[in-house]
């Protein structure tokens, strides 16, 4: 009989799991559906919910999508006209100015938002002017 003890194995090296881009995008799309919990989607696929939230944030940055369909701002139709030296503000729009307005001029671009201006609407206007 051999009295030698077996040599202990070195601890298993923990490696990072790698996921395909398609897998990540499918999970993000699934988690962005209305009435779907992103945590439940993550856990049902063996993913940490924080990891899925990070993928969702990266997905939105890459594709320009808002966080969810509930946070999509209502965009109003706009009409682009030639520059005018006189004020085109009509009486029908003057009541909207009572609710607030914002006017932005950058280089040769001019945007005027009349009515309630929230942070998401302002963000979209600024991003549009930058592009």
Automatic annotation (TrEMBL):
Gene3D superfamilies: Winged helix-like DNA-binding domain superfamily/Winged helix DNA-binding domain. GO terms for molecular function: sequence-specific DNA binding; transposase activity. One of its GO terms (biological process) is DNA transposition. Belongs to the transposase 8 family. This is Transposase. It comes from Sheuella amnicola. The lineage of its organism: Bacteria, Pseudomonadati, Pseudomonadota, Betaproteobacteria, Burkholderiales.
């Amino acid at each position: 009989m051999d009295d030698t003890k077996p040599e202990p194995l070195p601890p298993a090296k923990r490696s990072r799991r790698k996921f395909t881009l398609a897998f990540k995008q499918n999970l993000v799309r699934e988690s962005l559906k209305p009435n779907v919990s992103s945590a439940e989607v993550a856990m049902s696929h063996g993913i940490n919910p924080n990891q899925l939230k990070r993928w969702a944030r990266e997905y939105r940055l890459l594709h320009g999508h808002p966080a969810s369909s509930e946070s999509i701002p209502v965009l109003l139709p706009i009409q682009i006209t030639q520059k005018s030296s006189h004020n085109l503000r009509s009486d029908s729009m003057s009541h909207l100015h009572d609710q607030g307005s914002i006017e932005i001029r950058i280089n040769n671009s001019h945007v005027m938002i009349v009515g309630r201006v929230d942070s998401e609407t302002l963000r979209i206007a600024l991003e549009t002017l930058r592009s």
